[in-house]
Amino acid sequence: MNRYLRVLLLVGGLLATSLTLQAQSMRLRAANKQFDNYSYLTAVRMYEDFLRGRVEPAESREALTKLGICYRKLQDSRNAERVYAELIANYPDLESEIYLYYAQALVSNGKTRDGQKMYSEYGRRQTQDLRGKKNTIGLMDPSRFYLDSSSFRVQNLAINSRQADFSPMYYKSGLVFVSSRDEGGVIKRVFNWNQTPFLDLYFFPDTNQLRIPGFDQIVRPAGTAVLGGGGPAGDQSVEIEAESKPTSKAEKFSRTLNTKYHEGPMTFTKDQTFIVFTRNNGSKGKSGKSTDGVRKLKLYSAVMRNNKWHDVTELPFNSPEYSVGHPAFSPDDQKLYFVSDMPGGYGGTDLYVVEFNNGQWGTPVNMGKELNTEGNEMFPYVDSAGNLYFASDGHEGIGGLDIFYAEMRDGIPFRGVQNVGYPINSEKDDFGLITDRGRTTGYFSSNRRKGVSDDDIYSFRRACKQLNILVFDAKTGRPIESADVRIVRNGSNQELKMTSPDGKTDLCLDINTEYEFKALKEGYASNSARFSTLTQSNKPEMNISIYLEKSENTIIRGVVKTEVNQKPAEGVKVTLRDDKNKNTQTVVTGPDGGYEFNVKPNAGYSLTAEKDRYATKKAKIGKQPKRVVASQKTAPDSIGIYGEGDVFQLKNIYYDLGKFFIRPDAARELDRVVSLLKEYPTMKIELRSHTDARSGDAFNMRLSESRARAAMDYMVSRGIQAGRLSARGYGENEIVNGCTDGVECSENEHQQNRRTEFKILAVQ
Hints:
With 764 residues, the chain is of the alpha+beta class. Strand 16 and strand 17 (360-361) form a beta hairpin. Helix 1 packs parallel to helix 3, helix 3 (57-73) packs antiparallel against helix 4 (77-90) and helix 5 packs antiparallel against helix 6.
């Protein structure tokens, strides 16, 4: 009997165990379903509950792996660290990415040395991905990320809500930003990912209201909290100031642009009448989702008319199969930088650039492996100097997403990628920075306060670390007044300064920069001095002296401008050549397009101005007399250069109504173009002819084509090869003054539309 009871109990126990395991498997499948639907917050609760029960090893590994992914997606690095530590302790044959994710979580939680070990292990297991090697080396000396930290003040803004607020962008006198704040409507729509409201665009109209008393001061107020405890060297001088007082509520930016789906980071053209912004694919049904069932991000544009946004239009390179987002216009509005995970990239999301000319989009181009990594590059921004900022978890950083900077020359990184450092970067995610060209003030996003779905917008201000440049007479030791001091930054001309009566001028230094200061004064030989901030000094103010010796030398100076708009041309290589001894001097122009050379009197010189995609300009400079009057000009005021894509209107080429014959006044203007093409024998142009809006469209198109052809034939008759010219008629498609069909205009106004332009197609 006892034996029979023991058998019954054993069978009952096995049955109970079987039912328990079956129930557990069902719970795991339910959690996996939430995971597959990107409902990560719900999945977390279900996986954690599942793991508290009796679990088979294989199912435990599966649940822990997906739980770690959930915590990473929710930006919860502390729980991610706990999960990955348990995985690595119990399962020796894990995928190599687990060690990468564990390393990232450890560093994000301030455990730098432990993170370095895990990066090293990841690098050993995955040799093709350079993140392991780069971060192992980078974390050996993290102090370089804290070099200029004492110069910064960081403020958490009063516009932040309890939900995520991030990616600010300048607009008018305020900021447009992205937020998932709950506006308290009757219908609550939440995003499955983390159960927060969908993202919309918001606007705060006046940034002056966001500043707090004492924020600009360098002296640390008593009792303020130190951000993150300072750097590895114990730097305690960087704080988050007390939050500014509550301000008026931010408002929805546009009810036209905001929809029931996500609207995200945006950018504006310089005149702020054209916006490009991120939005979930809004197409209904199957066309709105990719083959894996996800609504990808797309870029859309809109135009401002009568204080409202109109004509919301998809950009042509969107796709339902991959995401395109995070746009940023270049300063001239001719390039758009953005982020995508389209096929052919280097990692998760990469940086791309596309040309935008005359309302037409070009073909996107990946920005290359110097900027893009095996990780994620996101949130680009271009400052007024054309330099690029972006966030990345693939370059060497402090932890999470860090913000990086790349000085650009003609769209190419000039000095590699630099981490902007602490306190803008922290152990958490930092991204979405906007700033001025000197990075002295600006705004950025971070989840540093709590680290879990808590993105906030911060402002920052950098104190000036001043360098005084003192110019003296080498013989007498007296200060030299009104001497020119050209600032050369990393090999490129920057601003031109002039010394005061005490022989002094100054500037605020940037970190990680090589400077040269060239001092010039009539009656003196030029001299220069170098200064580097690759290593930092704790002194708030420093001096450097330059001594000039008396000389009969004189100065040749000028400005390089673009012919199309007469604006200073930056990045032009200007070379001065002594015609007698063949010696050369070279400078690269900065934002003011200026150049200066110290030369001997009574010598002849040749000047050459060169830049990619611009025609090379050459000029002769006659023998220079000894200088007597300092204000006398020794070279032309400016040198004009012609660039590919430039369009010039031939202002005096007009046609009689309905005719295409070349008038005498038109011939004189075409002769000037003939002379230009003879000066630049490799230049190719397109002749573009336009009509007014009178007569039918078809007739006007034929007429404009005939006019363009007539101009081309005239130039060929003057000795220009036909292969260097093309002719195209635009009819009435590009009216310049609003005199379209049905609009009453004067004869003079109509004649302004009967015009011919030329566009430079190639310069060599």
